[in-house]
Amino acid sequence: LGVTPDKPHKKSARITGDVMGKYHPHGDSSIYEAMVRMAQWWSYRHMLVDGHGNFGSMDGDGAAAQRYTEARMSKIALEMLRDINKNTVDFQDNYDGSEREPLVLPARFPNLLVNGA
Question: Going by CATH, does the domain composed of 10-115 fall within 3.50.50.60?
Answer without folding.
Answer: no
